[in-house]
Write a structure and sequence with these properties.
The chain has 592 residues and is α+β, with helices and mostly antiparallel strands. The protein folds into three domains: 2-47 and 294-338, no CATH class; 48-291, PAS domain (Beta-Lactamase), CATH 3.30.450; 377-590, Histidine kinase-like ATPase, C-terminal domain (Heat Shock Protein 90, 2-Layer Sandwich). It is 53% helix and 20% strand. The chain has 18 helices and 18 strands. The protein has helices at residues 2-10, 13-78, 81-89, 95-112, 140-145, 148-155, 205-215, 245-248, 287-291, 295-324, 328-338, 353-411, 415-433, 442-459, 485-496, 529-536, 544-557, 585-590; strands spanning 119-126, 131-134, 161-169, 177-188, 195-204, 222-226, 232-234, 250-251, 259-262, 265-273, 280-286, 439-441, 464-470, 478-480, 503-511, 515-522, 562-568, 572-580. A six-stranded antiparallel beta sheet has the order 7-6-11-10-9-8. It has a five-stranded antiparallel beta sheet with strand order 2-1-5-4-3. Strand 17 (562-568) and strand 18 form a beta hairpin. Helix 13 (415-433) packs antiparallel against helix 14. The longest helix has 66 residues, at 13-78. The protein starts with a helix and ends with a helix. Residues 4-11 and 584-592 have low confidence and may be disordered.
Length: 592
Amino acid sequence: MKTLERKVRNGSLRNIIFRRYSVLIVALLCTLLLVVTAFAINSQLKKECQVHQREQVITANSIDHLINSSASAAVLVSTDARLQSLLENSCPDTASALINTLSELSRIIVNVSVANNDILFWAFTDKSWNVYNVKAPNATIISDLLTSSLKKQLLSTRSAIIVGAYRLQQFVFDDSMRDVILIAKPVLKLETGEFLGVCFAFVNENHISNIYSNNVPSNGTLMYLVSDQDVILSSPDADSVGQTYSSVAQPANLFSANKKTVGHATYMENKIALSSYGNSLYCLIPLNDLYKDIRATLFLFITIGLMGIAIALFLANKIADRITQPLSQLSKVIGNIDMGEISSRAPISGSDEITILSKSFNHLMDNQEALHEKELLSQKAVLESQFKLYQAQIIPHFLCNSLEAIISMIRLDLKEDSESMLFQLSEFYRLSLSNGMDIIPLASEISLTRDYLSIQEKRYREFFTFEIYVQCDLSPYSIPKLTLQPIVENSIYHGIKPKGSMGKISINVSDSPHYIFIKILDNGIGMSQQKINLLMSEQNTHHFALSNISSRLKLYFGPNSDFSIESKQGAYTQVVIEIPKEKNQNENSLGR
């Protein structure tokens, strides 16, 4: 019955059936369309990527060969016996001796690496890190690159390494800049492996750029030669050289790792690992270029899908009319009952199945109306008596403890504090009387609890402090009176006071779309799960307050409310109250 009423309230049965059939058929059609479209797009993308991958493989092999040949040239130079002898014994102390050393290095370079024209210029250091430039008089360039970390790396390796990509001024008297990739090879004595210096080969980046221009199609495709440290060593985009690849090509979205964004354009990423020194070649193909051949196919699929959806809606409408037309009158009666007209009854005419259903419905509603009135009176009486009993148990319990606190302060001759506490107690009872109401606004309950804690804090100022955080609007909501006070009382007497040191009670009130959460936390001695079960038991006669509170909440809010205790011995105890956001529940349920 309730399900039927809810359907009537949200719309006619015909509309509900129409929506459900429409959603089902449209969902099936859309799913089929998406699968077919995705398959077609994926196949076309693979085909386009394979075409571009051929040029990328050729480019990668050419770059790999250039770097390997340059590194091999550096290895040959570093193993030359004349170079090793020169670096081992060289310590030029005059300008003429330095010129002779540089001349000898130039002859060695010409003799050993005459066939390699990819290296723009060379530089060497001896074991004291003195720099000797060949074809590059500006020695400060090399000195600036020799950081302590680079020196440490060169001393610990025997192989050639790629230091990085740089834009350097080749000559002091020439302002022109050159993009280079720096390869370094330690010079080790052949007989003993002793470190004699370093051979630096500056590879001309323009030669790698020529490889791009010869192999990459001019359709906006981007290529980046990236080191194992994610640094861009070479690219047709000269401004990106020296930056990290991850900062230049950023993920386009969270769901596709191989789609990247450079500037304002989106690309499909393809990566090839080179054999040289952990480098990788990234090829970024514009998505517009990949999608240009599949737009016609995509348009066709979309057209077919829209036509299928239109046919599905038409069929769903016909099915809904056929099923729901005989029930339209009965649904109107149900709608009237849902609006509060309980005496409304279905008209009786004819002798078909709908007439039999209408008669049975009318008879059911007659009985239901009588039972409903009886049940309301019974529930009201039970709820009122149980609330009276619970309140009668809690109020004397609180009053006894509050007066005990004030008497203790009088005995301690704390006149001003005791007067203040008496005033707060009178304020507390003035508010708690609430004109005889057992259900009070939640904001008033928080105020009552704050008054109680203020009274107790004056008595046990050496044992605890408290704080209350309210993070939501409490004005629309109600709660049984004196729900929180017994909880904080237990926190003081059974949690913090036995601890023997300063404690703290925190009350936090927050909400979600459908619930209010009240959390009472103390850092007292805690308790075991066995004790928690005992406190929540209805058979517990010594600490009745907590089980009493749980029962009151269930009576007031029903099964949607929750009362739970979490504790760790020697650490904390936390009570969590979860109540539904039901406005004016006290008036609707109890008639107050």
